[in-house]
Amino acid sequence: RARDGTSLEMGRGRFNKRRGGGGRGNGPQSGAFARDFKRQKRDGGGGMDARGERGNAHDGYHDIQKTNKAFETYYKAQNIVPESEWETFLDCMRSPLPMTFRINGSGKFATDMRDQLEGTLFAELLKEELKDEEQNELPPPKPLAWYPERLAWQCSYTRAQLRRLPALQGIFDFIKNANELGSISRQEAVSMIPPFFLDAQPHHRILDMCASPGSKTFQILERMHGDFDGNTKLPTGIVVANDVDLKRCNLLTHQTKRANSPTLLVTNHEAQNYPIIKGPKGELFDFDAILCDVPCSGDATMRKAPDIWNRWTPGNGNGLHTLQLRIAARGAQLLKVGGRLVYSTCSLNPIENEAVVAALLKECDGALELLDVSDELPDLKRSPGLRDWQVWDKFGYHPSFRGEEQMFKLCETMFSDEETKKLPLERCLRLLPHHQDTGGFFVAVFQKVKPMEIKEDVNAKKQTVKERVRLSLNVNAKNEIEMSHEVITLARKGQTASIPPEVDDKGEYLLPHRGATGPNGGSRWLGIDPVLPVNDPKVINSIYSVYGIESDDIALHKNCVTRTADTSRPKRVYTITDSLRQYLACDVNESLRVTSCGLKAFERQEIKDKVKEQEETSGAMCDFRLTQDGIPMMFPFVRKRIIRPTFDDFKAILERRTLAFEYSAEAPQRAVISCAETKKALLDLTLGCCILVPRDEDLAAINVSKADLAIACWRGRTSCNLLVSKAETIHFIDKIKVNAAVKMDTS
Predict the structure, then answer these.
(1) Which residue has the higher pLDDT, 278 or 482?
(2) Catalytic pick from 346, 411, 586, 690?
(3) Which residues of 55-72 are buried (b: 16+ CB within 10 A; e: fewer)?
(4) pLDDT tens-digit profile of 53-93?
(5) What CA–CA distance (Å, rounded) separates 249 from 126?
(6) What is the model's pLDDT at position 480?
(7) What does the pLDDT look like over 626-664, one tens digit per residue?
């Protein structure tokens, strides 16, 4: 039986001595392969070079023998590629993977950047005939045919070509700088596909079960927010991004930071055992859409990671089949009726693909329907899924699980039977590398059509009791050292009384103050701070008052949290959505291991001599400054402390980072605010944070909205100082240049 209590046969291995032995179907992989599938995730992000490749795989690309007889025999037998295309398929698998990137966002800045690329950088390449050192013709960059609005591009150049050929230097510099600034994301083309099939909406609750490094999560967040510019409401849903590895959760948080979203929750759990959260009345917090981009053998990524050629065996996929099925089954349990579940791998292997899909459909007893998505992304070339396949291991081909021959790490759900052949598995999508010059990929899209029973995970590992030992050394009357120790058992699930959520007058759940459960404070998860509400009237009212924010517009008194134990003086204040607050409030047993939550909107920055300053100015003051990360969300609701400088002063503070109010002979190099009106507006403010936005006529001249160029600054005693990182400052300067160039081209 499966660990979720369902009658899945996936854990039933037949590995007695007569059959060759070796362990269970869900046993660990070899160390080298386990490291590989963690390392070879196909998403963009950390560790990639300018071509979108990881590590040093490309450095010795041409030195690796890209042949494997077992690979060719296995996949010829599976018939995933028509015989007439076999050699083309192999040639493509042995060639380097083109670099692809997508322009982040879906608003005006994204289309303006695309127009500038097409009108300048890429247009210059089209004018001349590009050739490499061996005089072979090089194709120009081209948009991905299936990606909407031409916001994703493919460049078929090697890293060496990008660096050495003068004609490509502009592309190399653009990709490097724009990726660092967050304007683009380097991401493999096929990795961009699954989020489109989720059909994410702003009010949806969405779970990404195996999310790191976060490229797909970032896409989901973009679709949740759409073109939010202050004229529409914030999304009311949530996006939960989960990963089993804590370090990869940190990478995930970094990658998704650019989305500036209060809907995001990052958790650290095994996907197959993801917690099920229920409200006080027993209501299930299920999800409208779930992405299961599961760990896989990665044999469809050989173009990016050619070292897989030398290590590939049929057992690579067999060893992951059980885990993949358990993750997908857990996703089905967490899915809302009517919701979509997208299952995907970067493997070509039917054991990891169609076999998992078939087993899931059988065991869900009609609760899931495999959708036909042939009319979605119509320009995406795809092959149908298989209804029949072969199962191999190190002993060779096995026609049936019931045979008497030796088997190694096989289970019954890997095999196709008569029931399997009646399932509509042709609705699955297999993307072959030679069809559109990409990596390989597999996608299956499910819809939940009726409820399914959620049984307790009887086989799950019992939670380990955490203990700490406190040693004490004492000197007795005889000058002898005596040592004593005290064993402190940390609270585990079920040992402490759960704290139910508070309920407001509208019947909404509010996040309660849950006390620390360990001897040194903190949440029940060792080393992870709890998520606590910030509802101290002094904190919240000062923010409302100083920044002119109305509680009816955005309920900070309900939706602010911190990881600081003293919530009356939080170091950082994060904003979350109503749905995310209720989700956290109903986690009464702290089942969720939360590594990141919401959007950092405010930071404490106390003002020196605050009493003296208040006496001199008689103005309200606040110990919390707006963060630049929080401005895109908060700006539409801020009505005070907004300064409209001239465009010259605005550009000057971006370039110089500080502007003095008066010229000083002691510091003649300091730039001074040139506009008397701007200086007066700043001096009329009390000390603290303010927002600078260019004037309407200047914004109209470059066709940019106010929210696009709103920057956080600090009104000091003698100067106005920029509160934006250097990387973000370059991003703002780039925005001005891009829009000015597009405006000039248009006129």
Answers:
(1) 278
(2) 346
(3) eebbeebeebebebeebe
(4) 334 444 455 578 899 999 999 999 999 999 999 999 999 99
(5) 41
(6) 66
(7) 999 999 899 999 999 999 999 999 999 999 999 999 998
pLDDT tens-digit series, residues 218-232: 999 998 887 544 444
Task: Measure the N-to-C terminal CA separation of the chain; round to a whole number of Å.
Answer: 68
Query: What are the CA-CA distances from residue 213 to residues 39, 55, 187, 197, 218 (Å)?
Result: 10, 15, 11, 20, 10
How many residues are listed for the chain in this entry?
747
Q: Sheet containing 99-103: give its strands across.
A: 142-143, 152-155, 99-103, 184-186
8 Å CB contact between 718 and 662: yes
- Asked if residue 104 lies in contact with residue 184, where contact means CB atoms within 8 angstroms, the answer is yes
Spatial contact of 439 and 97, defined as CB atoms under 8 Å apart: yes
Q: For residues 666 and 351, what is the distance between their CA atoms, to the nearest angstrom?
A: 74
Residue recorded with tokens 């300053």:
613
Which residue reads 């859409």 in tokens? 289
Rounded-to-integer distance, Cα 71 and Cα 90, Å: 10
Cα angle 491-496-499, degrees, rounded to a multiple of 5:
125
Give per-residue pLDDT as tens, 248-276: 999 999 889 888 899 999 999 999 999 99
AA identity, residue 457? D
Q: Cα–Cα–Cα angle for 730, 734, 735, nearest 5°?
A: 120
Tokens of 110: 């994204």
Q: Which residues pair with 370 in a beta bridge?
A: 446
Query: What tokens were used for 212?
Result: 């790191």
In this prediction the pTM is: 0.84
Q: List alpha helices for 695-725, DSSP H.
A: 696-702
What gap in Å lies between CA 204 and CA 496, rounded to an integer? 33
The percentage of the chain sitting over the pLDDT mark of 90, rounded to a whole number, equals: 58
Q: Please state, in angstroms and rounded to a whole number, the distance separating the CA atoms of residues 316 and 293.
A: 17
Q: Compute the distance between CA of residue 412 and CA of residue 401 in angstroms, rounded to an integer.
A: 6
**Alpha carbons 25 and 2: distance in angstroms, whole number:** 12
Residue 346 annotated as catalytic:
yes
- HSE at residue 39, side-chain half, CA atoms within 13 A, is 16
Distance, CA of 179 to CA of 182 (rounded, Å):
5
Interstrand relation of 441-448 and 594-597 (parallel, antiparallel or unpaired): unpaired
Give alpha helix (H) positions in 188-266: 194-198, 215-225, 246-256
**Helix/strand/coil (H/E/C) assignment for every residue in 126-176:** HHCCCECCCCCECCCCEECCCCHHHCEEEECCCHHHHHHCHHHHHHHHHHH
Between CA 489 and CA 232 the distance in angstroms is 50
Separation of alpha carbons 246 and 527, rounded Å = 11
Q: Are residues 262 and 577 in contact, defined by beta-carbon separation less than 8 angstroms? A: yes
H/E stretch holding 475 reads strand 467-475
Instruction: Show the 3-state SS of 337-385.
Output: EEEEEEEEECCCCCCCCHHHHHHHHHHCCCCEEECCCCCCCCCCCCEEC
Distance (Å, rounded) from C-alpha 711 to C-alpha 638?
Answer: 13
Residue 470 carries which side chain, given as an amino acid letter?
Answer: R
Token pair recorded at residue 579: 């749905």
Amino acid (1-letter code) at residue 493: K
What pLDDT digit, counting tens, does each position of 515-572 carry? 554 444 455 676 788 999 999 999 999 999 999 999 999 999 999 999 999 999 999 9
Q: Are 43 and 214 in contact (CB under 8 A)?
A: yes
With vertex at residue 242, the alpha carbon angle to CA 216 and CA 152, rounded to the nearest 5 degrees, is 5
Burial degree of 407 (CB within 10 A; 0-12, 13-18, 19+)? buried
